[in-house]
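Below is one such record:
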Amino acid sequence: MTRRRSRGVPDGPPVDLTTSVGRVALANPILTASGTAGHADELGAYVELAAVGAVVVKSLAADPWAGNPPPRVHETPAGMINSVGLQGPGVRAWRERELPRLVATGATVVASIWGTSVEDYRRAAELVAGAPGVVAVEVNVSCPNHHDRDRMFAHSPTATAEAVEAASAARLPLWAKLSPNVPDIGSIAAAAAEAGADAVTLVNTVLGMAIDPETRRPRLGGGGGGLSGPAVHPVAVRAVYDVRAALPALPIVGVGGVARGVDAVELLLAGASAVQVGTASFADPRSVERVRDELEDWCRAHGVGAVRELIGDAHAR
């Protein structure tokens, strides 16, 4: 597949795009975001998945999950609100039917798991253990805890730690995906790290809602939902920056409103070692490849020889 270059940027010396998230080495820092690239090779018709830093699949529970009633998605002026409800086939069916297609593309695969109880995380992790081609597990703790008044695990340091500890059954590096809807995300990140997380993914969607003035009812079948897209990018930058400042040794994967190479640069400067592209893929399924190319072009235009030079550099200024 031919790589497209950004207009107006001359060719020059190659840029070293390699990075790592804890123990996981990556060919480049641009990944897909969970929930936006499907469970298998759906984006393979548009981009070379083997050339993506990693494909983070849609979050999977141990068992099949139906998700929320429709409508599930509503476009906003600067993004979208979704209430998909983590619909999925369950880890076992995914391993049997969908993972082989993704692995066949040569993609680096990160599995994402979720649950409604600590035991759910343990079961999902046990089912992921030994999955071919999977290099890490993203532990999505930004979902309801049915044993704590439906609060998100990520709203509590204790609950986050319990979920991460349970996910260690996967015997793979763990990335804890945290919610921005908390007063002190640093304390949650610290709890995740102490429980065994190799890295944190910052951030998941921001709580939001849209109401139809004509019907006077919420536009989504699940009521409220999660806001993503450009509107949340500054929230993600702040979360990454704050956690990097508080926990400089903890690797971070940045996500939130990344649609351009310069958006990725901003998250890298804030302290992320890798960056995920999510909502932009719905408008442009080639966006993950385009963002990678734009990042490389930006580095070349600014005399940056290796993307690692950017990581956390805003803290050194």
